[in-house]
Amino acid sequence: MDEVCVWLVRSPLPDAVLDRLAGLLDPRERDRAAALDPVGRRRFVAAHGAARVLVAERVGTAPRDVRWEYGPHGKPEVDGVRMSLSHSGDLAAVALTPARAVGVDVQRHTPGLDTRAMAVRYFPADEARLVTGAAVFATLWARKEACVKATGGRLTQGLALPVAAGPVVRGAYHVVDLPVPDGFAGAVALHGPEPLRVSTAWWSVTE
After folding, report:
1. What angle, rounded to 10 degrees, do the helices at 115-122 and 134-151 form?
2. Rounded to the nearest 10 degrees, how much is the dihedral formed by the CA atoms of 115, 86, 189, 199?
3. Alpha helices of the chain — where are they, by DSSP H?
4. Peptide bond before 12: cis, by omega within 30 degrees of 0?
5. DSSP three-state, residue 78
């Protein structure tokens, strides 16, 4: 059985830690961070810096020496481990697994959003009927986006995926919900229907 390790990262991190993580980013990441507002920049640096530290530990290199290869829709990959990264609000998640393509997603609940209308527009009709509020909508959205991220596709390609009935999605993905803080939903998916074991931990700023 494949094992997926998921680390959760919560912002804000101390300035000294953010400065250290910012120094690990490559030029592409630094450019993306610079284009964000100050809060978004801090969250981006926390998520992407932590991802570099975790991947480096797994593949046996220095964090600043991790060299991402980006898929056609921007999914980062690196030799030696399969990974996925997501961040929403002040929460980020990094998923690592040895072999099968992996996708992870976290979604902050958005009570002000008309989730019913969004579900009717984008979800299969039987799933749209299940959406009674922000929590259900975020759960279904996170599952769909985790599947799409596993294979590096576009989210628009995955909104029609039926993810409410069970862990196996159309025989192509196995999806597991993540234990995330109140106000968020999270899911991880592996490409292929075979079961997976998921471990979840908070990333420590001392790592």
Report:
1. 40
2. -120
3. 15-22, 27-34, 38-59, 115-122, 125-128, 134-151
4. yes
5. strand
CATH number at residue 65: 3.90.470.20
* Residue whose C-alpha is closest to residue 65's, from 25, 33, 37, 15: 25
Confidence category of residue 207, pLDDT binned at 50, 70, 90: very low
Residues 72-88, mean pLDDT to the nearest whole number: 92
| Token code pair at residue 36 | 């964000």
Tell me the one-letter amino acid at 150.
A
**Domain ranges, residue 38:** 2-202
d(CA 43, CA 22): 11
**Could you give the angle at the alpha carbon of 92 between the alpha carbons of 104 and 160, nearest 5°?**
35
